[in-house]
Amino acid sequence: MIRAAVEADVAAVVELEQATQGADAWSEGLVLDGITGGLPTIDYLVAEVDGTAVGYAVASYAGDIAELQRIGVREQHRRSGIASDLLAAVVAHAPSTGADRMLLEVRADNRGALAFYAARDFVEIDRRTRYYRDGTDAVVMRLPLIAGCGGRP
């Protein structure tokens, strides 16, 4: 089940953030602010299996751009469709915010994530050299959300 995150989810999301993002994990305070409305352009979603949070997604919405900031899934639940469901929920919600395209950044060395997003019609539009703490480049990808934006029919 995919649902909006609530304050009771903060500890689980922080744990997932640390497990999936490693050195680039966000702090508990930042997660708390995002979930409780302290960051008004940010939405968190949680994926639950049997009442336990096993995945999350974070997106920001500002004007005509939605940005997928995070998707994380507990290792034992990967390749089960949870990331796809989270992404689909974020993409479905984005046009209602006024967004006409979705952007994301992914590590250039994360072949699995690059293939995951490409299979869902995201295309590379740019690279950010040495973007991550360890010096790895970020690949910027875009998905048009409405007709006429970036080639969507």
TrEMBL record:
Example of a GO MF term: acyltransferase activity, transferring groups other than amino-acyl groups
Alphabetized UniProt keyword annotations: Acyltransferase, Transferase
One Pfam family in the UniProt entry: Acetyltransf_1
Top-rank taxon: Bacteria
Domain N-acetyltransferase: 1-146
CDD domains: NAT_SF (cd04301)
Entries under InterPro entries matching the protein: Acyl_CoA_acyltransferase, Bact_Acetyltransf, GNAT_dom
Record's protein name: GNAT family N-acetyltransferase
Organism: Nocardioides marmoriginsengisoli
